[in-house]
């Protein structure tokens, strides 16, 4: 595998909050995404996930409490923990999550993309 330019991979994404798998480590997928100030609804995962902010700020609500993750900081969300992204999050985020979670999200993303109207 070659060197991955993470910031360039994030910039190349078609839209904010869409992710790209950069690689796999054991049973985990390492993904990158670009945040855009907009909130993301509350979710839970069967496995823990690590959220590493490369640049910018990630504003979370975790089990009802506000958590701010700054550049160069990482937050690990425990399995089955309610968490949501609050408005104001922006920058580049790397997520490390169990492969089953990554595959389910990729399938949901593909379905959402297929349902979007196309410009002709």
Can you give a write-up of this model?
The protein is of the alpha+beta class. The chain contains two helices and eight strands. Strands 1, 2, 3, 4, 5, 6, 7 and 8 form an eight-stranded antiparallel sheet that branches. A hairpin with a 2-residue loop joins strand 4 (49-62) and strand 5 (65-69). The longest helix has 17 residues, at 99-115. The model has no long low-confidence stretch (mean pLDDT 88).
Q: What distinguishing features does this structure have?
A:
single chain, 120 residues, alpha+beta, eight-stranded antiparallel β-sheet, 2 helices, 46% strand
Coarse morphology: globular
Beta-strand fraction estimate: over 45%
- Which structural category do the helix and sheet elements fall into? alpha+beta
Count the beta strands.
8
Q: Which radius of gyration do the C-alpha atoms yield?
A: 14 Å
Helix count equals 2
Overall helicity: 10-25%
The average pLDDT value, as a whole number, equals: 88
The low-confidence runs, each spanning 5 or more residues with pLDDT under 50, are none
Biggest sheet statistics? 8 strands, antiparallel
The string of secondary-structure elements, in order, is HEEEEEEEEH
Q: What gap, in angstroms, lies between the N and C termini?
A: 37 Å
């Amino acid at each position: 595998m070659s060197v991955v330019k993470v910031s360039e991979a994030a910039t190349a994404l078609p839209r904010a909050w869409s992710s790209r798998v950069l690689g796999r480590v054991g049973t985990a997928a390492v993904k990158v995404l670009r945040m855009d100030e907009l909130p993301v609804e509350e979710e839970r995962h069967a496995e823990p996930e690590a959220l590493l902010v490369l640049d910018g700020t990630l504003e979370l609500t975790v089990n009802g409490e506000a958590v701010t993750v700054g550049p160069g900081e990482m937050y690990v969300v425990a399995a089955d923990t309610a968490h949501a992204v609050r408005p104001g999050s922006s920058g580049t985020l790397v997520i490390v999550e169990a492969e089953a979670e990554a595959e389910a999200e990729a399938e949901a993303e593909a379905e959402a993309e297929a349902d979007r109207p196309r410009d002709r």
